[in-house]
Amino acid sequence: MKILVINGPNLNLTGRRQPEIYGSRTMDDIIATLRHDCPEVTIDYFQSNCEGAIIDRLHEAGFGGEYAGIALNAGAYTHTSLAIADAIAAIGTPVVEIHLSNIAAREEIRHRSLIAPVCRGTIAGFGELSYRLAVEAIMKF
Ligand code: DQA
Q1: Active site positions, annotated
Q2: Could you tell me if the CB of 5 is within 6 A of ligand 1?
Q3: What pLDDT digit, counting tens, does each position of 60-111 carry?
Q4: Mutate to test the pocket of ligand 1, among 10, 30, 72, 101 (most ligand atoms within 8 A of CB)
Q5: Ligand 1 pocket test: which of 73, 102, 129 has the largest number of ligand atoms within 8 Å of its C-beta?
Q6: Residue 98 vs residues 21, 72, 85, 121, 123: alpha-carbon distances, Å
Q7: Which is the closest atom of ligand 1 to the Cα of 10?
Q8: Which of 54, 56, 59, 133 has a Cα-to-Cα distance from 89 of 20 to 30 A?
Q9: What is the pLDDT of residue 51?
Q10: How far is the CA of 82 from the centre of ligand 1 (A)?
Q11: pTM summary value
């Protein structure tokens, strides 16, 4: 089974960026731990700070059944990108929305997710465990 993890803007800075919110472990560490803890799954990883690149990757991965699911942390595009929401709605592969922080407990502008209605579900607020929970959910689809 293959699962694709996609991270959006600024998540490449995880570990250095506002560690009190996003934790002090780097995304390389988080993905390495995920792969170590889920050896039965092949976890591909993609990160981009560019909206169009995220959409292109969703299109590439979203047809043909290569991936059982996509775990997507769209970063701030979560709250702004109708284009990413449209891409998720367009593809056949299920997408799980993930966030390190509990977006519902933060500034009001982060309460609205444009992608939530087109995702299979949302996991937020568990730090790096959000990634693990998304992978476990996809494994059970
Ligand atoms: C985030 C939450 C977003 O509001 C924020 O813009 C991010 C990270 C999270 O993982 O908690 O960049 O998606």
Answers
A1: 22, 99
A2: no
A3: 999 999 999 999 999 999 999 999 999 999 999 999 999 999 999 999 999 9
A4: 101
A5: 73
A6: 15, 6, 14, 9, 5
A7: 12
A8: 133
A9: 98
A10: 16
A11: 0.99
pLDDT of residue 6: 99
Q: Give the position, in ligand 1's atom list, of the atom nearest the Cα of 22.
A: 11
Q: Dig out the tokens for 129 from the structure.
A: 């465990």
Measured CA to CA, the distance from residue 66 to residue 126 in angstroms comes to 28
Q: Which of 62, 37, 3 lies closest to 129 in space, CA to CA?
A: 37
